[in-house]
Amino acid sequence: MLPNKIILFFLVVCFVFIGCDEHHVFDKYQSVPNKWDKDSVISFKITPPDSTEAYNLFVNLRNTNAYKYNNLFLIVEMVFPHGKTVKDTLEYRMAEPSGKLLGTGFTDVKENKLWYKEQVVFNETGEYTVNIQHAMRESGKVNGVKELEGVTDVGFRIESIANSK
Q: What is the pTM of this model?
């Protein structure tokens, strides 16, 4: 009976610490079925709560050992409420030179929190859309990687800077 109480106490403490993320304003994931097709765009609709506060923006990614590249190229597009669009091509390091995957996690699933933009002020009121798509290519090949293996989930996160001080 006593070991069950210890396990229950440990689980409650873990949930409390995980749930107490005072910085997050928006944090959602979408699953990638089997392989991430190069034409598949993952979209997030966002309505920021404050048009005067600055935020840090992140692309979150979960991947498995099936991910066989050392880096990751993404095209991230932000569509503003009044039609303006900002599109960035970003590169992230995903593995050490030895091939060991970067990220957090004790299993073969690693979670990566990748910087997108710092100190962003959402000065237009209304709904923003963030579109994320991979832009991977193999060395020496013109055509991109059609189906990217090993990515299980793609997410987008907005963190308040004011709460982190």
A: 0.82
